[in-house]
Design goal:
By secondary structure, this protein is an alpha/beta fold. It has helices spanning 15-26, 52-63, 74-78, 84-94, 106-111, 118-124, 138-147, 164-170, 178-187; strands at 2-8, 32-37, 69-71, 99-105, 127-132, 152-159. Helix 1 (15-26) links the parallel strand 1 and strand 2. The protein is globular. It starts with a strand and ends in a 6-residue tail after the last helix.
């Protein structure tokens, strides 16, 4: 079984996330995808977050559209900062016969060598990297991380340059999958009307 790990804050789950998930699910060598909402992201300050169960539910709404995808809540259950190395090791122990890939957007590849125990992480798991359309330094970041020992496969796909904060600031429904926007409206999240 070959499993891709797609982690993030998903605050909320936007169309850029959905496009990455779609492309990963379309890769013929990937058998399943675990979408993993984090508890506390160690690499960024969250200006505003909704309750964890809402982020999980939004991820589940999107995963219903993809046969290979399901949501794992182990980082939320673990509490505290969500470190990728701990998650990867937990999952390798739980699924000893699986081969894992770590799904990364271009911005994550650029900062990978600042992550907690990144040097151990790149020995533990290969990466599937997606470039966002506006990220001109992506190929340099990939080359740099490969020189440091990371096993990175670049997936050829144009991922829209969207951030969750862009939705939180502007409430543009066009930035989100319909099912996520409907969920947000139904539950009165992010002050959306």
């Amino acid at each position: 079984m070959i499993t891709a790990l797609f982690g993030g804050t998903f605050n909320p789950f936007h169309n850029g996330h959905k496009e990455i998930l779609k492309k990963v699910c379309e890769l013929p060598f990937i058998d399943r995808v675990f979408v993993i909402p984090d508890c506390i992201p160690p690499h960024k300050d969250c200006d505003f977050s909704v309750e964890d169960f809402h982020r999980v539910n939004m991820c589940k709404k999107v995963c219903e559209n993809f046969e290979k995808a399901s949501v794992l809540t182990l980082e939320i259950e673990r509490k505290g900062k969500s470190y990728s190395i701990i998650t990867v090791r937990e999952l390798k122990e739980k699924y000893p016969n699986d081969k894992f890939y770590f799904v990364c957007g271009g911005d994550m590849i650029a900062s990978l060598d600042t992550w907690y125990k990144w040097d151990e992480l790149i020995k533990e798991i290969p990466f599937l990297a997606f470039n966002r359309t506006e990220n001109s330094g992506f190929s340099d970041s990939v080359k740099r991380m490969k020189k440091l020992g990371a096993d990175i496969t670049v997936v050829d796909a144009d991922i829209p340059e969207i951030s969750s904060s862009a939705f939180r600031n502007n409430h543009l429904s066009s930035l989100l999958p319909t099912e996520v926007y409907e969920y947000i409206k139904e539950n009165g999240l992010y002050n959306a009307r």
